[in-house]
């Protein structure tokens, strides 16, 4: 895996991923940025959310659950001094579908957190991570 990050101007950067996708990043105005794009740490959190949500959907599909939606809301706290690493992260999953089994949803989240999601496992080295979840039954 590779990525090239180029400084554009002020505190604006452009990342080109190895798969050929482009991501803009910018700093806050108080840091010399113009607030035109997400901060790098926001992208790290978003990428982690994507990693774990991807796992949950895939695991539930393989378990033949009738999943129709998966939303991961992530809240994080950072250290007050440099390096301002994440110190606490909560992942709240809202999983929707028809007749989803709570034990299947819980298992999918657990497997992602403990075995498959490289990003959240890596962040778990500096942060306390909590996972909560709810099911929305669309059959009603």
Automatic annotation (TrEMBL):
InterPro entries: KH_dom-like_a/b (IPR015946), OsmC/Ohr_fam (IPR003718), OsmC/Ohrsf (IPR036102). It comes from the Bacteria. NCBIfam families: PRK10738.1. This is OsmC-like protein.
């Amino acid at each position: 895996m590779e990525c090239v990050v180029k400084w554009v101007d002020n505190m604006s950067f452009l990342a080109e991923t190895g798969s050929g996708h482009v991501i803009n990043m910018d700093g806050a105005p108080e840091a010399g940025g113009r607030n035109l794009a997400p901060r790098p740490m926001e992208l790290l959190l978003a990428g982690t959310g994507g990693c774990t949500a991807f796992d949950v959907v895939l695991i539930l599909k393989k378990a033949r659950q009738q999943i129709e939606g998966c939303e991961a809301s992530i809240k994080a706290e950072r250290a007050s001094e440099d390096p301002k690493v994440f110190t606490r992260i909560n992942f709240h999953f809202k999983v929707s579908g028809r007749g989803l089994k709570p034990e299947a949803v819980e298992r999918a989240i657990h497997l992602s957190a403990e075995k498959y999601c490289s990003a959240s496992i890596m962040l778990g080295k500096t942060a306390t991570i909590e996972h909560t979840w709810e099911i929305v039954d669309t059959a009603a």
